[in-house]
Amino acid sequence: MSKALSMAVFFLTAIIIVFPALIGRGCKMPAGALPNPDQRSSQVDSGAEIKTRVFRSDLGEVITLPLDEYLVGVVAAEMPASFDLEALKAQAVVARTYTVRRLTAFGGQGCERHPGADICSDFAHCQAWEPKEKSLGKWPADKAQGYLRKIRRAVQETSGLIIVSGGQPVDAVFHAHCGGHTENSEDVWSAASPYLRGVRCPYCKDSRWRETKHEFSGAQFAGALLPYISALPVSAAGRPLLDGAQRTATGRVRFLRVGGEQVSGREFRAALEMPSTKFSWRLDGDTVTFTTRGFGHGVGLCQHGADGQARAGKSYREIIHFYYTGVEIVPISGLAAYK
Ligand SMILES: [Zn+2]
Ligand SMILES: [Zn+2]
């Protein structure tokens, strides 16, 4: 493959795979507020009652599924099925919370890209979802049925439950691995959120994402950064290749200078397809090697940490309260817009 072609493939891959993961999931809050907690039903609603119109990005058509059946396909797509049951339950509640914010029946905006659908299966736009056949096909044959049963159980045992803060469903963002400490939302995106506060997370330390190495030749590095800077860093005569890193309190790079030009940590991570902005580097001749910690933006629930906590005996409720500060876990029926 020619160098130009391989670089084009590299950029395309970065745009298709990495960039969508950086896009914050924005959607409008439902208009309704929760009534007085005393008036809430202690009964958990059946997710089977609530219809979800899902635009299947793979087929280009809208299908209608009971909420909980839809959530099985979301949890299967968003979290490794080998994770502990309590971690899968936490993910189910997170996914249900995200979905309810979109459902037009609850005052949500639906998927604005696909009129007539509440949500689409494009992870970069709404929320990842996969059909049962795909899940069964990707899991080891001897484990597949057990995994499906486990995910169904995670959804059923949390049926009807969502996470709220100030009477509204939260923006239940999550990521694969926090690298040891989750982030305040304003340190990654612009808006501060009372429930998206950074917490020290020692529970994900056994994962392979705790620390990874990424090596680039000078040419690879320069080519990847070209869209973000006006000159090749290798030709930045006399100026340090990388310097001036501004970091968050937990060590994620907000900005750094590449050959004297400022680049955001998020752009830098996307360009080099690195798993997180929590990185350091070492220059050795024509090679630059990055050491990164974690995988993902670091805000909200840490999936590997959730699994670590579950294996240490924590419940899904404890896991959710650990990663989302000051929230409540309540039945959907508490929402005023509930029909
Ligand atoms: Zn969508
Ligand atoms: Zn963690």
Task: Give a brief outline of the structure.
By secondary structure, the chain is α+β, with helices and mostly antiparallel strands. Helices cover 32% and strands 19% of the residues.
Describe this structure in words.
The strands form five sheets. A three-stranded mixed sheet has the order 2-1-3. It has 339 residues and is an alpha+beta fold. The longest helix is centred in the N-terminal third of the chain and has 20 residues, at 3-22. It has helices spanning 3-22, 67-78, 85-102, 132-138, 144-156, 185-188, 218-225, 265-272, 303-311, 316-323, and strands at residues 51-56, 61-66, 119-120, 161-165, 168-169, 174-175, 212-217, 242-247, 253-258, 261-264, 279-284, 287-292, 301-302, 328-331. The protein folds into two domains: 33-207 and 297-334, no CATH class; 212-292, no CATH class. It is globular, with a radius of gyration of 21 Å. 32% of the residues lie in helices and 19% in strands. Helix 1 (3-22) packs across helix 8, helix 3 packs across helix 5 (144-156) and helix 3 (85-102) packs across helix 9 (303-311). The structure holds zinc ion (ZN) (2 copies). One zinc ion binds at residues 111, 113, 120, 122, 125-126.
Structural features:
3-stranded antiparallel beta sheet; 14 strands; alpha+beta; 3-stranded mixed beta sheet; 339 residues; binds zinc ion
Topology:
Blueprint: H1 3-22, E1 51-56, E2 61-66, H2 67-78, H3 85-102, E3 119-120, H4 132-138, H5 144-156, E4 161-165, E5 168-169, E6 174-175, H6 185-188, E7 212-217, H7 218-225, E8 242-247, E9 253-258, E10 261-264, H8 265-272, E11 279-284, E12 287-292, E13 301-302, H9 303-311, H10 316-323, E14 328-331
Parallel strand pairs: 1-3, 6-13
Antiparallel strand pairs: 1-2, 4-5, 4-14, 7-12, 8-9, 9-10, 11-12
Bound molecules: zinc ion (2 copies).
The site of one zinc ion has 8 residues, from helix 9.
